[in-house]
Known about the structure:
Blueprint: E1 2-4, H1 5-9, H2 18-27, E2 31-38, E3 45-55, E4 63-68, E5 83-87, E6 97-102, E7 106-107, E8 111-112, E9 116-118, E10 121-123, E11 125-127, E12 144-145, H3 155-159, E13 163-169, H4 180-191, E14 205-210, H5 211-214, E15 215-219, E16 225-234, H6 243-252, H7 259-271, E17 275-279, E18 285-286, E19 289-296, E20 302-304, E21 310-312, E22 318-322, E23 327-330, E24 334-335, E25 348-355, H8 357-366, H9 372-379, H10 386-400, E26 404-407, E27 410-412, E28 421-424, H11 426-433, H12 439-448, E29 452-454, E30 463-466, H13 477-488, H14 509-523, E31 527-528, E32 534-535, H15 539-543, E33 566-567, H16 572-584, E34 590-597, E35 600-602, E36 605-609, E37 612-619, H17 636-649, E38 655-659, E39 668-678, E40 681-689, H18 691-696, E41 703-709, H19 710-716, E42 732-741, H20 746-757, E43 761-770, E44 780-789, H21 798-816, E45 819-820
Parallel strand pairs: 14-26, 15-19, 31-34
Antiparallel strand pairs: 1-13, 2-13, 3-4, 3-6, 4-5, 6-11, 6-12, 7-8, 9-10, 16-25, 16-26, 16-27, 17-25, 18-19, 19-22, 20-21, 22-23, 23-24, 28-30, 29-30, 32-33, 34-37, 35-36, 37-41, 38-39, 39-40, 40-41, 42-44, 42-45, 43-44
Helix pairs in contact: 4-12, 6-7, 7-10, 8-9, 11-13, 12-13, 14-17, 20-21
Amino acid sequence: MRVSYEWLKTMVDVPDDPKDLVAEFVRTGTEVESVERVGADLANVVTARVVSKERHPDSDHMWLCKVDVGERNLGADGVPEPLQIVCGAQNFEAGDHIVTALVGAVLPGGVKIKKSKLRGVESFGMNCSERELGMGNDHDGIIILPKDAPVGMDYTDYLGSSDTVIDCEITPNRPDCLSMVGMATEVAAVLDEDAHVELPRIAHEDPSVRTADLVDVTIDDASLCQRYTARVVRGVKIGPSPEWLARRVIAAGSRPINNVVDVTNYVMYLTGQPLHAFDLRKLSERDGRRHVVVRAAHEGEHVTTLDGKDRTLTPDMVVITDDGGAPVALAGVMGGLDSEIDEGTVDVLLESAVFEPGHISRTSRNLDLMSEASIRYERQVDAAGCATVSDVAAALFEQCCGATVCEGMVDEYPVPAVPARVSLRPDRVRALSGAPIETSFMVGRLRRLGCEVAEGADEHAALEVVAPTSRPDLTRECDLVEEVLRLWGEGDVEPTLPAARNHAGGLTVEQQRLRLVGRTLRAAGLSETMTYNFADPRDLERLGVPDEGRGVPVKIMHPLVADQGEMRRDLLPGLLRSVAYNLDHGVGNVHLYEVGRLFFGHEHRSQPDEPTYVAGVMCGAWDDDQWNRKFGRLDFFDAKGVVETLLEALRLTKVRFRVADAKAYPWLQPGQAAEVLANGALLGWVGNVHPMSLKAFDIDEPVVAFELSVDALLRKARRELPYQDVPTLPGVSVDLALVVDESMTAEQVMQRIRSAGGKLLSSVRLFDVYRDPARVGEGKKSMAFSLEYRAADHTLTSEEVEKAHDKLVQKVMKSTGGEVRG
């Protein structure tokens, strides 16, 4: 929902700085997507005066103009003089005041104004029409300002249209906030201010023509349509909207089209009630009246919507029909092309109705047709306000379109809206919230929200609350508790331990270890992130996970977003999206980890498995290069080091890394991936993500990643390691260089060395790998190890070391097929 700050100011007192209101929105549970300045896209667009107008020397329809733009006048030689502009419009003369975009201006739609040549003549700007400035559809000529308009003023300042728009993310349970009136009510409750909303009123209804004599309405099934009102306005004059109306429609996120369409859009943004205007003459007449029938669509029935597309309908869709026959609109989603308003429209049938949210939601998704109307109907529109909203629209038709309003309206209301009545116990509010909220605060803020509140005899007596029909989320006492608490401030609630007998509190061992996982990864340089539990069903396919390794998906019956249709089965896709987002926004060094649940279904069980995993991704370098230090690109060994640090913190023993089979891990690069094991149990994997998998997530940089089972980590973790005395006796170091096959890994050789070393071998370390076909042999490599021998109870003699070492060498050569390099 785009909230115009200037518009909001007319309804409720707000802080001078929009940032203060944004902070209050966030505090009370309304997320803010962005704050933008309307008019910022019209920088370098100024008021101007035409000094002269002459024929273009090489065109019969273009004009060569001199345009005065005040202090910004600049001639070709740098001396201030009126700008030379080539213009194709025909509706202006010398002396007219106009609007000019200077060189460097970027107009709505991304059009950048540059110095150019038109038919061989230089032009230093552009004279603008309404459409070019995104302020209307008029493109027949440039904007002509009053004769007293100043010259050289920013056009947004001249209009007074500079505005701040706060784009709020409205949760599905708050349909009331999808309107300016609803947002004004919310702000009034948040700031404890009075809301003063003044709606337009009809000046005069024509008593000689009754709407009921021109139109009747039939609702076939009340479960499809809760209420349908119809009004008729006559003598509509189609044209551009007034300036104030166009500005507000633009601020709300739409483009002005004409006064009729703009009025319906404006009223929808104002009240949250979608409207639709039919051209009355395009509906068939029978018995002197038009007959509107609301019914379910027939299987295979067709309608061409306003976007020009032919739609095939199904019986779970609702249509507005002409006398029960051909559909003229797809109810709650989009109007039909056959009954649209055009330049010849004179009489308008105005619809204000409420349709069943589930049908509208399914229709919108099945037809892949999302509209501002469907968004509001899906979340539930207030049926009690239909008639009032219809009157508001009729009043604006009267003001902005020169229309005559016919007397009365047709109102079919088979299912009246009943406000919820809830008993609210102040002591219960304080007990549930853990906050000392005064009863007077509860009463005052609930009334600000539009509730009727009957107070009890004292501070502790129950309050009888009647919730407004515009708030379908307020039906239980706990709903009111939540409203009171969020307005009071959840952040101000002092944390306390729950009351319990014989319970000292504290974290369980698993909780302590889980927190240790996070602390260790953060200490290693990774930042924690949280991605959605919902996932795109195509994620694992993009990643390259084979079908047999994906598990059974847990599908969402009614996903709010089309590409989040199931619960996630892997953490990596969400993390890769975070990497892509950071790279797209100029952050080249990305180090993220997430601890979260995965969801795997079963064909014959209702409850899914929900194992917990920890995963991390690393891209770029550890830090930006400094004058005295350069950072290399992160690779497999950096990720392996992070994993080793984590396993060491959890005190896992007998940890080893095994080369990952490329067929089992197709999303990892072959030869640059390993399985992680501890005490023989598989914990997870670490490796470089395959370039094809990265490309599927729009990533062009190398990424290393890891994923480990938290359940396996916690099972293998130890509280403490076996105590070992600090060695007091000296050790003896011996180097060993073995020539082995290229396929032999360092870990395999080190395992055989440890196995052959017995009790005297205290440590082994690889310190060199050497390849040379001439000296070592084709397909061979030399691996040099540093071995340390030590006895716990005596100092080793050279004879003991030689004997133990010779025995080790013989066993290792036999088990590896290698030779000692001379």
